[in-house]
Amino acid sequence: FLPGDTRHVIREAAKKSCFICCKMGASITCCKTGCDRTFHLPCAPDGECVTQYFGVYRSFCWEHRPQQALQPRPSQDNTCSICLDTVEDKISYKTMGCPACQDARFHRHCIQRLALHAGIAFRCPCCLNQEHFMMEMLTMGIRLSKRPPAWESDQEVAPSDQRHGRCDAATCLCPAGREHAEADGPWQMWLCSSCAAEGTHQHCSSLGNSTCSWEANTC
């Protein structure tokens, strides 16, 4: 049984088309007042949309997403500070920078992987600033982990009670909340097949019964 408000959310989502893939069932709406763009969470990277994984979990379309205000790079070295491959010569959705040192540049997917790997030790890979850097990354849609750094723990022998147990969908439709999980059915919790640090209810990410795995949009 689903409460009336939840049923209404599901019915409304079924009527909305994702502006990225053009399929129905888009449950995420840009939170900018007056913008009616809706999209699926898995489609967000392709549409260069941003979801903030803190507070009220706000989501933005490509036009209204937060932008970084950084000075031109002093070193003029257009390489990612993490993978050392080439990055764009300007800040964009795919190319981000450190607000503290103003010099570090990195791919969005590289800094996202570092954030999940570093956990509570996450900081700028160049100047090592943490507080200002972490807040900027959160605002720009990078998902952080509250776990100890991966290099300080053995994932294979980690206790089972450390398993991620929260639905990280931008809009969680479960009437019992984000922490609720069932062994089977629409409220079964799926973990990202790549990082296991992000999860979703089967229903909240429109996963069918035939789905064998799920990967977070940040991986």
Automatic annotation (TrEMBL):
Swiss-Prot/TrEMBL keywords: Ligase, Metal-binding, Zinc, Zinc-finger
GO molecular function: ligase activity; zinc ion binding
Domain RING-type positions: 80-127
Source domain of life: Eukaryota
Residues annotated as domain PHD-type: 1-65
Keyword Amino-acid biosynthesis: no
GO CC entries: nucleus
Presence of keyword Transferase: no
Protein name in the entry: G2E3 ligase
UniProt organism field: Leptocoma aspasia
Taxonomic lineage of the native organism: Eukaryota, Metazoa, Chordata, Craniata, Vertebrata
Gene: G2e3_1
